[in-house]
Amino acid sequence: MSELKNHGVAADDVAAGLLALEAGIEIEMVSNTFLKHGTNLVDKSPELLEKIDHAVWKILELKNELGLFEHPYADSSVEADVVRSDELVSAAKNAAKKSCVLLKNDNEILPLSASNPVLIIGPFAETQALLGNWNCKGKRSETISVENGFRQHADRVFAYEFLDEVPEDVLVSADSVLVTLGEAWDQSGEGHSSANLELSSAQQSLIFDLKALGKKVIGLGFAGRPLALGAVIDDLDALLWTWYLGNEAGSAIAELVLGLDSPTGRLPMSFPRVSSQLPLRYNELRSGRPANDSTYSSRYQDLPIGPLFSFGYGLRYGQVRIEQIELSDVVITDRNPVSISLLLINESEYDTAESLLLFMEDPVSNLVRPVRELLDFKRIPLKKGEAKRVEFSVSTDSLSYVDHQGEKRLENGEVRFYINDLTAVIGEIEVVK
Fold this sequence. Notes:
The protein is of the alpha/beta class. Helix content is 23%, strand content 22%. It has eleven helices and 16 strands. Strands 1-6-5-4-2-3 form a six-stranded mixed beta sheet. Helix 2 packs across helix 3 and helix 6 (86-99) packs across helix 10. It is globular and about 80 Å long. The two termini are 43 Å apart.
């Protein structure tokens, strides 16, 4: 609340506290403007008591829902049994595996065999500094490194930070090399913006040198955000983006790379080709000159159109196929929602999960709308060889937008739908008010 002064809408803490209270803020965190000045504010404006009563009531309701009146204090004696329990460690590893996104896998080079030597090189090969920013009480000493993650499943594991550290016999014996790339944990997070999102020159050189040696180069990406990988992507045979996965990072990565499990993640943000391509988003507003092969369009003349990897992109081992997409109707009204059903077939050799992202496009509107909008998503678990029927329900409310007056608005006309692929229309309907 005190930052209202920095925004220039409050002259001092007194004014900031009053503005926040009148706006409906119920809990002040970090700053203490109301704690310091609340009594004086109420003395001057007794009508504020009604807002305070409302705020207090909401907080009491929350405490009641949490059972804090019956059990106001945690039992510190059970901490040792709960923290790092087998159940929670397993949950952390599963969450880490679900977070990884397979971005490239030429000729299905992944998964690797644990019977072959595993060579890992780069700045994140041996380190336990894999918790990411804002890691709270996470302990680096309890974090499983990439090297140690692979040692849980393979007998011949070799990890080095630099290429010139690798013994000649180890380098010769490895047909493929895992290259750890990205940025250190303290380079991203709150207050850590960077103008340059390219990999360091040392990391780029490592990739190029390994490729020149005739190795299959598999990238393991560490970062708290997308990086610009256009300079190296052609020299990577595969790329698994791992972000920062927490204590179980090494175990999760090893199990995915060695095929004990299949990656299932999809990107929450688009990856640029180069830093200057930003800002980049799947739901950008329509342009008067959409990007195309013409010189006079909204594109960069020295780059291919679009991101390197778009929002929602993600591969897995084997194939999960979508078939039999059907719309329940071609017209939607307030009383007649439309369902979109499809058959999902797991043709891979893994128990997996497929994320389905349903997008819409409103091609003509009184207010400029995004080229694509995410309507809904589902994550569907699938056993090996299993097929499931999946259904989305679309209402007119989900197709409406907020106009300049802050009111929801629905217009007659065509709406197109897409699933996962932002370019392939899977169905069209007509909106009738």
